[in-house]
């Protein structure tokens, strides 16, 4: 009998922490979700404000929201973790969480943000960059960006729902910037 392998520590840990956050939210009637796993305008004297800048990526409104994000995370994340390494991927996730958390805090004072959608879109854009060679921009990146941005802009303009489309765009932008930064570090100096 073959043993199971914890093959993608960052992605699997992210999944498990999100599952725990979802369970805690169910048990506490969303108190933990609101207190630790959603980012919103709160006093800077509240220590949990700083926790929420990162913790919001682990929170989900319900099981459907969780499954929608986690299925994509589990498909796209492990190959990226294998390609770039756990530390690099964790850095990208934390930077994206901080950027989206701060932007939500500053730009949308009357709304809360939670969920891993920004991280998922960061991973999608990073994946579309993973084929970059010799400093050339992959056509897959251009196509994904056009389709992805087009869908998000359309949703912002014409779909009235509670989806944080702007933060999806922020996640995608973070993934693209991070991907170019990582690729630049891996290229010989003469190629950038």
Structure description:
With 192 residues, this protein is an all-alpha fold. It has a single domain (9-183), classed as Rhomboid-like (Rhomboid-like fold, Up-down Bundle), CATH 1.20.1540.10. It has eight helices and no strands. The protein has helices at residues 9-27, 31-36, 47-55, 63-84, 86-107, 117-129, 139-158, 165-186. Mean pLDDT is 89; it is low at 188-192.
Here the CATH topology equals: Rhomboid-like fold
Mean pLDDT: 89
Main sheet specs: none
Spatial gap, N to C terminus: 49 Å
The CATH superfamily is: Rhomboid-like
In CATH, the architecture is: Up-down Bundle
Shape: globular
Summing up helix and strand content along with how strands pair, one would put the structural category as mainly alpha
Number of domains: 1
- Residue ranges: pLDDT <50 for 5 or more in a row? 188-192
Alpha carbon gyration radius: 17 Å
Would you list the SSEs in sequence order as H and E?
A: HHHHHHHH
Strand content: under 5%
Separate helix tally: 8
Number of strands: 0
CATH uppermost class: Mainly Alpha
């Amino acid at each position: 009998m073959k043993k199971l392998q914890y093959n993608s520590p960052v992605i699997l840990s992210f999944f498990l922490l999100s599952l725990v956050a979802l369970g805690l939210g169910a048990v506490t009637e969303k108190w933990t979700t609101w207190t630790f796993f959603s980012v919103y305008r709160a006093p800077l004297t509240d220590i949990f404000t700083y926790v929420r800048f990162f913790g919001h990526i682990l929170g989900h409104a319900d099981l459907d929201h969780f499954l929608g994000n986690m299925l994509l995370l589990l498909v796209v994340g492990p190959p990226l973790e294998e390609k770039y390494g756990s530390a690099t991927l964790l850095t990208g996730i934390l930077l994206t969480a901080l950027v989206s958390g701060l932007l939500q805090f500053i730009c949308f004072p009357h709304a809360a943000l939670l969920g891993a959608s920004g991280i998922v879109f960061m991973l999608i854009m990073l994946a579309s960059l993973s084929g970059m060679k010799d400093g050339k921009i992959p056509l897959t990146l251009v196509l994904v960006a056009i389709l992805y941005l087009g869908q998000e802009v359309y949703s912002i303009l014409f779909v009235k729902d509670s989806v944080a489309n702007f933060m999806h765009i922020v996640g995608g932008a973070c993934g693209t910037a991070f991907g170019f930064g990582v690729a630049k570090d891996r290229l010989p100096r003469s190629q950038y």
